């Protein structure tokens, strides 16, 4: 009986592209998050102001919290499409 485990055929798997590291993915996520946050800030400010005028109350979430929430919703959607 021969030992087939020590004489394995090279399939070229060493040259296969590797998945990005966790650190790179986190950095990319934060860049996308920042872009989306900045992009949603004007609309969040507008909707907050309109609601504040309509209800005559400033107790709801402010524009920063609204934009942050929208960025937290949108950014994972982009990354789940990978």
Give me some keywords for this one:
82 residues; mainly alpha; 63% helix; rod-shaped
Task: Write structural notes for this entry.
The structure is a single chain. The longest helix is centred in the middle third of the chain and has 34 residues, at 22-55. This protein has two helices and no strands. It has a domain at 42-82. The chain has 82 residues and is an all-alpha fold. It starts with 21 loop residues before the first helix and ends with a helix. Helix 1 (22-55) runs antiparallel to helix 2. Helices cover 63% and strands 0% of the residues. The protein has helices spanning 22-55, 63-80.
In a few lines, what is going on in this structure?
The chain has 82 residues and is an all-alpha fold.
Provide the fold topology.
Elements: H1 22-55, H2 63-80
Helix pairs in contact: 1-2
- The residue-averaged pLDDT reads 83
Low-pLDDT stretches: none
Using the alpha-carbon principal axes, give the shape.
rod-shaped
Strand content: under 5%
Class from helix and strand fractions: mainly alpha
Main sheet summary: none
In whole angstroms, how far apart are the ends? 47 Å
Number of helices: 2
| Total number of strands | 0
Helix amount = 55-70%
The arrangement of helices and strands along the chain is HH
Please give the radius of gyration in angstroms.
24 Å
